[in-house]
Amino acid sequence: MNNALLSYHDAVLYRSGEPYRILAGAIHYFRVHPELWRDRLRRLKAMGANTVDTYVAWNFHQPKRDEAPDFSGWRDVGHFIDLAAEEGLDVIVRPGPYICAEWDNGGFPSWLTGIPGIGLRCMDPVFTSAIEDWFDHLLPIIASRQASAGGPVVAVQIENEYGSYGDDHEYIRWNRRALEERGITELLFTADGGTDYFLDGGSVDGTWATATLGSRGDEAVETWKRRRPDEPFFNVEFWGGWFDHWGEHHHRREAADAAMEARKMLDLGGSVCVYMAHGGTNFGLGSGSNHDGSQLQPTVTSYDSDAPIAENGALTPKFHAFREEFLRAQGIEDAPELPVELLAAPSVVPAQSLPLSAGSELLELVRKAGKPVSSVMPLSFEQLGLDAGMVLYSADAILPGRADAPTESRVKVAGLNDRAYLWVDGEFAGVLDDVTGAEGLLVTGTGVPAKLEILVENLGRINYGPLTGHGKGILGGVLINQRYTFHWTQTPVALTEWAAEELEELAGADFELGEPADTYIALPGCGKGFVWLNGFLLGRYWDKGPQVTLYAPAPLLKAGRNHIKVLELLKPGTVVELREEPDLGPEEAGPIAAAELP
Questions:
Q1: In this structure, are residues 133 and 67 in contact, taking their beta carbons and an 8 Å threshold?
Q2: 161 has catalytic annotation
Q3: DSSP sequence for 176-193
Q4: Model confidence at 590, in pLDDT bands (50, 70, 90)?
Q5: CB atoms within 10 A of CB 269
Q6: Over the stretch 378-389, which tens digit does the pLDDT of each residue have?
Q7: Confidence (pLDDT) at 597
Q8: Which of 182, 240, 356, 590 has the highest CB neighbour count under 10 A?
Q9: Among residues 87, 161, 231, 502, which one is catalytic?
Q10: How many Cβ atoms from other residues are within 10 Å of residue 350's Cβ?
Q11: How many angstroms separate the CA atoms of 207 and 157, rounded?
């Protein structure tokens, strides 16, 4: 295994030649405010972990093709790794380039997946060339922090759960070479679901195969004994909790159930990484979507994931249950007392209700939100170079009928991704989504041109499965009954780039603080939209739930006057509430509902 710190033979993992067990937890730097990185790492260490695991989200660093990747500030993954070392943790890095992670587009930049005809996650030279350019920027940061260079990085993952997607083993081997050629010398591994099916697609000879699963770990151990007899079992992604989609319940997994499953694998000599140890938040428009075969399933803003370390850093019963198992695996019977500062409840802003001022009318706002682009057919987000946010489509269309005999017809949006708000001559006509778009909305016409304005909202790009890389916007055209409407004007609404000038026109509420603290923002009476705090886009809200409050960590607040801005898409409310506790919605308790999914 070169001169890697970690090695294995005869199904035993070694660190510097001594038998070893990885006891890890996942924390994603891109989901945690950088001023809180050290705190969350310290809490992971207190759980008994010896290792932190993180993905690297390519689109977080390079959202635009014509700009070099950014590794400063919040995007300084090297600093996150350095902090882990200072807290006494080893680091596992999972650079993808595909990461899933319920993150927008599975971590791929939309400019990449929007290249016409590109083959993703295979030996398409257009794809592999882009990966090489990205790795040229990223991997020196990781390589310089490897254990061989005195750093904490002890293992690096090749791709991610590839056996759930494809079978191009040449691509996996190419990915491995791409890492090695750029100086990665520590232990390399693949990660796939815990059955033969996933190993068939994702594992390759000569590289450590690890598992991702939430239950039946003992069965997976037996599969490894049969399929990979020389390799130690490592569940690099043990789902101790689960994420939420809008319109579902908040997923819960009992602490005892999760800890018992971890114990099974540990008692069989395996290593475990809890996914997530601390979930954090899908700030901005970072949350991705799944697809169940019939409709889009967008992920909520919170990534709390019912993790041992809650979204606000609080230590949950699951933290103590995992701590007991991690310490037990290390032969520590008498657990040391936890530091008082870790047990203390995070300080919060006192609960209060704030009047929400009225903002400019939605259609007026988006009409002037960007530079219009004309085309014959509607353009997708990708064709417009827009990663996230919304696009306003506008065209004139003759609606059938006569002045003396108005007629109903249907405005249909073919290939709608994801959600559309329709106005006819400035009058709101209704909402369509990826399911109802083909059916359309009834409108009344008199045989004269009417102005159609369709605001399409990107709810988050698909992050898992064969639809990864699916485009956004109007992909198939707009029809009046069976007749296409041509000649469109598109106005991109780049919400992630909005600054003071754009935010000034939104509904707002201000409040005073003596000292920054955490708060939880709720918008009773509002329907669906976006919230900014002191100019920072916190994320999406939606009254369909389950998530009710948005977590605002203390570093986003300031002493003195704080400003909340709200862009509402459906029904403006009149108040903003600052709450002292999170409300992630009605719970769905029990074993992980999707535990058998890859």
A1: no
A2: yes
A3: HHHHHHTT--SEEEEEEE
A4: low
A5: 15
A6: 999 999 999 999
A7: 40
A8: 240
A9: 161
A10: 10
A11: 10
